[in-house]
Amino acid sequence: MSGFTFKQFKVEHDRCAMKVSTDGILLGAWANLSDAKSLLDIGTGTGLLALMCQQRSNDLAITAVEVDEAAYNQALQNSANSPWPNINIVHTTIQAFEYTKPFDVVISNPPYFNHSLKGQSNARNTARHTDGLSFDELINTFKRFSHSGSRFSLILPSIEGALFIKLATQNGLYLNAHCRVKATPNKDISRSLMTFSYLKSDIESSILCIRNLDNSYTANYVALCKAFYLKM
Known about the structure:
The chain contains 7 helices and 10 strands. Helix 1 runs parallel beside helix 2 (48-56). By secondary structure, it is α/β, with parallel strands linked by helices. Helix 3 links the parallel strand 4 and strand 5. The protein is globular, with a radius of gyration of 17 Å. The longest helix has 13 residues, at 158-170. The chain has an 8-stranded mixed beta sheet.
């Protein structure tokens, strides 16, 4: 099977280095979109995050940026075949991307492997490694395309997440929400869902477990993702 079928759309990912993953689904379902009119998706890949956010908020004006040509073309295809063919998908690096108005929400499932061994696929390396988009650049990108009330949501492995929180704080951002994710009750925390802004607040902290010990989805995961999964 080349794609992943959701309730309202299908995502083909045979030409993308990074396939549809639980990370992307988590972020697309969890990110705070309240009162947002515009959204920027950095490194859209298949277009998954853009499509999920468009389903959640039909009036949201979404721009999605992708550097890899094959992934860009596949994101165009996935958007065209969805109920939302008007998502603005742009083929460029985020560093070269230009836009006249700031976005209310910036979202990203970014590359995160800083020092790990690389494979033979250049596209997959670009998608997984921070060489082309460092955490500092990611933070600066948010600052470049945001206004005083904008929010930035992303997902990272927990170790990289701790590093990102430190860097974001040093750059004048505040962590507003932090959801720590574990695969099963007996596993360690593996992922951090985070929302940052320029506004200081009490951190909305939570833990999300994806599966029960019998491998069924937990009630919390179902509540978060049931609008998207076909069989949930």
